[in-house]
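User: Can you recover a sequence for this backbone? Please restate the input before giving your answer.

Assistant: Of course. Working from this structure:
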């Protein structure tokens, strides 16, 4: 996965659309966003719906990318995240 600063991501946006990219705030040293190709995103969502794949499969590789401060009102997302934290 490529790690880019915010300004780098803005200037190279069309080039990074087909790659897995983490966008960093280099000044504050925090991750701000992740860009995934739609095919990867779609596959991860489908696999996340299967509990065993979330815990041991390909989806588990991405579970640690989010900041601890990230919150969402999406009920399905929160169910997935909360289930992973119970393990």
């Amino acid at each position: 996965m490529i790690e880019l600063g915010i300004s780098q991501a803005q200037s190279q946006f069309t080039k990074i659309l087909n790659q897995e990219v983490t966008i960093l705030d280099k000044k504050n040293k925090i991750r701000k966003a992740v860009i995934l190709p739609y095919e990867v995103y779609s596959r991860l969502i489908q696999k996340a719906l299967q509990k065993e794949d979330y815990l041991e499969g390909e989806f588990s590789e991405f579970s640690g990318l989010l900041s601890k401060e990230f919150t969402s009102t999406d009920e399905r997302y929160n169910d997935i995240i909360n289930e992973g934290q119970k393990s």
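That completes the design. Residues 1-35 form one domain.
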